[in-house]
Structure formats: C-alpha cells, structure tokens
Amino acid sequence: MRTAELLVGTNGEGLWVSRGPGEDWSAEPSVPPDARIFSLAHAAKADAVFAGGAGCVYRRAGGRWERLPLPGPALEAWALAIDPRAPATLFAGCRPLTLLRSDDGGERWTPLDFRLPPELERPHTPRITSILVEAAAIW
C-alpha cells in the first residue's frame, strides 16, 4: 500500500508533495521547479495523478511523471476532471476559454464545442475554473 500524499501546485514554483500529514514538504523533482500548476486531479481506479499546467498536463502513472502537451502552447489547464466510470477520460478547462477532452489519459486532446454568449467587452480573459463529471450521467 502506498503512503498517502498531499500535493500542492503553485504558480511558478512547481509541484510540492508531503508524504505525511502536511508537515514535511519537498519539490517534486520530475516537474520543472518553475512550473505553473493550476489544477490537480486523481484517477483512483487508474492510480494516476494529473497536474494542469501552462501548455501541458503532467501525468504521474506507475510512479513517474511525464509532460503531455495541450493542443496549443498558450493554453493553461485551470480545471481538470476525470470520468469516474472511465478513468482514461479526462477533461481540461483552459484559459483562454477552451474545453478539452482526452479519452487516452491525456495523450491526445479534442476540443469540445463550449462557448460563452458574445459580449461587447470582458474585463478579463475568460477561462474555465471548475469541471465536475457527475457519475450518474450517461452520454
């Protein structure tokens, strides 16, 4: 059985992990120390952890981290969600406003048709900040 972990993503200081109750911290060496991490998700059935970053999603599977690029380098993965019935299905909500779907654990991404109503002015760059896959939903 693996030791429980607490993971914290930072904006420009990488990914940090505590293998205890949040007392002893160390930088995750497989993620760049200056990485901007906006979101975290865990696929318990697949024993995989995902960290949404700038231009990519980092995935830990089998104990090692790898960088999986998003369709565009300007995309930032601000929200991640995993389908609890299909742990290889991952959704990423991005800045600028883009919703992506991957059916292979983040290897390849498909943009979904998600748009906000047009407005004359927006005081900020729209982004998706939360995603929830309801387990009872049927596509």
Structure description:
- The structure is a single chain.
- A hairpin with a 2-residue loop joins strand 9 and strand 10.
- The radius of gyration is 15 Å and the shape is globular.
- The mean pLDDT is 91.
- Strands 4-5-6-7 form a four-stranded antiparallel sheet, with no helix packed on it. Strands 8-9-10-11 form a four-stranded antiparallel sheet, with no helix packed on it. Strands 1-2-3 form a three-stranded antiparallel sheet, with no helix packed on it.
- It is mostly beta strands.
- The chain is built from no helices and eleven strands.
- It is 0% helix and 44% strand.
Which outline best applies?
A: globular
The main pleated sheet reads as: 4 strands, antiparallel
* Distance from first to last alpha carbon: 34 Å
| Strand line-up in the sheet with most strands | 4-5-6-7
Instruction: Classify the secondary structure makeup into a structural class.
Output: mainly beta
Q: Bin the helical content.
A: under 10%
Task: Please give the structural blueprint.
Elements: E1 6-9, E2 15-18, E3 26-27, E4 37-43, E5 48-53, E6 56-61, E7 64-69, E8 76-83, E9 86-95, E10 98-102, E11 110-112
Antiparallel strand pairs: 1-2, 2-3, 4-5, 5-6, 6-7, 8-9, 9-10, 10-11
